[in-house]
Amino acid sequence: MIFQSTIEEAHDRIRPHIHRTPVLTNQTINQRIGAALYFKCENFQKIGAFKARGGLNAVLQLSPDELANGVTTHSSGNHAQAIAYAARQVGTKAYIVMPRTAPQVKKDAVRGYGADVIECEPTLDAREAGVQEVIERTGAAMIHPFDDDRVIAGQATSAKELMEDYGQDKPFDVILAPVGGGGLLSGTALSAHYFSPQTRVMAGEPEGAADAILSFRSGVVEKAPYINTIADGLMTTLSPRTLAIIRQHVSDILTVSDPEIIGAMRLIWERMKIVIEPSCAVPFAAVMKHADQFTGQKVGIILTGGNVDLGKLPF
């Protein structure tokens, strides 16, 4: 169970190891949407993504005995870097199972933090089998990318900072985050629930990996009808843990197409002069697509990361 105190303790625990990331606004974008948008820039976080928060909160709670054999996880990129970074911070070994199709820039970054990368086929079964092999071989402690209360509580600190820094005078009407496995969305929803109960939380999801919206409606974990999206960080399905939190505390999930994601990504690059990855652009794409839902409102958007392969830009 994740309580308000769980999130506050997580924030205290990871604070020495993370950046309190800036919040940016843009007048042109505000005029275009007809709302006041506040972008929480986790692309400026350690490792270039919000995942550093959850990874650190989990690893920093391991005992010396648990740390002795290292840590392991499976990830297509940003969680991989988070666990590799966290392991380096506490002086232990990281064994990261990554699909062979993961962006080379992310694999290189994981190795740069001193972790071992074990490549596998790009399926969840292959990823889980790879982690199991690592555990049997090394005794490493597993840190799941999202199905872990310690990870969710760490991810919740991003929205907590956003509300502390820009939601005190006038609370946010709504905060949006992207949804893949649901760790960030769950944490964001819990932060809003505890620290700003009047603030709604919504999600953006790619049409090419639209499992969360189906699960949200049915109440059971569903698989996407097909997987084909530029948002490589959002291809995972929810877990029963994240689905339960999302159904209780999230008001809606909005889907967007790849062209809409690319358009939103490009607009942020051009107007805000910052680097974001495709998965990061998904909630802003949802706001652009459904601007009428946000007219006149104060809107927070978690910009999740900036680990983009500059050799493969979609524009």
TrEMBL record:
Q: Which cofactor does it need?
A: pyridoxal 5'-phosphate
InterPro entries to which the protein is assigned, alphabetical: TrpB-like_PALP (IPR001926), TrpB-like_PALP_sf (IPR036052)
Highest taxon, organism lineage: Bacteria
Known CDD domains for this protein?
Thr-dehyd
Which keywords accompany this UniProt record? Answer: Lyase, Pyridoxal phosphate
List the Gene Ontology MF annotations in alphabetical order. ATP binding; D-serine ammonia-lyase activity; L-serine ammonia-lyase activity; magnesium ion binding; pyridoxal phosphate binding; serine racemase activity; threonine racemase activity
Name the Gene Ontology biological process terms.
D-serine biosynthetic process
* Segments forming domain Tryptophan synthase beta chain-like PALP: 14-305
Q: Which family does it belong to?
A: Belongs to the serine/threonine dehydratase family.
Protein name per its UniProtKB record = Serine dehydratase
Q: Which organism is it from?
A: Arsenicibacter rosenii
